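Sat 14:20. Reprocessing the chain from the morning session after the first attempt stalled halfway. Input below, unchanged.
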Amino acid sequence: MKKWLIVVRWFVGLLFIFSGLIKANDPLGLSYKMQEFFEAWQLNGFHNYTLFASIGMNILEVVAGVAVIVGWQMKRFSWLLLSLITFFTFLTAYVLFSGKIHACGCFGDCLPLTPLQTFIKDLMLLFLIVLLVLKSKEVKSYFKSAVSVTIILFALLGTLGIQLYVQKHLPVLDCLPYAKGKNILEGMQLPPNAVSDSFAITFKYKKNGRLIEFDQNNFPADFDSTYEYVNRYDKLVRKGTGLPKIVDFSLTTLFGNDSTKSILNKSDYYLLLFVKEFAAVDEWKTASFGRLIDVLRTKNISYFVVTADVLGAQNYFLDSRILKCDATVIKTAARVNPTYFLMKGPVVLEKMCNSETGKMIHILSKI
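Finished this time. Tokens:
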């Protein structure tokens, strides 16, 4: 077999294995990215199926990558890879040229690439995989069929197992801006030398049956009561050069007061309990949760329930404990429902899911 073909097989295979495993570490993240695409295409009816699609996609990437390296069923798997990369190239081209989606999430949150970098990467892979398809007949498996099937089955079950594990626990490798050790206030700042988007308030008026638009610095010279107000909107006049890692994070009381900075600037310890929804509250608000609250009271550590489901929270917690937060932010910060954040100031000291309540109690008892 030609050496260059072996190199291409290993390069393509390892890249797909890496891509699949890094996203298998956080399949919910890929699921949310799929929903972002569906919303852009006005296909919201598929939202309930994105997690299954995410898990299946990650398994396909890893299994296909392993099969290409092993050389088993090369014709079938090289065509599968060609189908996958053609689809991925379409998605990355859409991200790059439409501007409707910030990033494609091809390597998850752990290795963010710009849309241009991702598109170039997919074009390169497309070329290499076409070569594999054309040369598939020359590839012989390294192992007997039974051994190859065993290796591929192990890859399939391993990838599935990782994804089932992180559905009950947090990602093994937390690459989110809310990870343990992160400073939330710093994450809300623009990157160094970056410029934010600039907007101008644009007004719409009618005069003599004509619709006229102008901004606050360019009112018509003859502006008077004959102009009939229609509406106003913010118009983007200069695209920014970067975004903060954390956007739209705010903690609001039930009275509408923004408490974000006052809470994140607390000098002592406090606990944030991020809850997406309360449908399964009986599964986590158990005796161990009660012991956690007792420890917090003993240590005089305040806690707050951060949720978008305010009505649900009011059924189980005092209003003074409830902070309203955007649902999308909560999905980003807390992959598992619920998730504990032990905080000191704006720094995340510990981040644990409900299955680790006992461990959180142990940590709190030592404070």
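Residues 3 and 215 are 64 Å apart (CA to CA).
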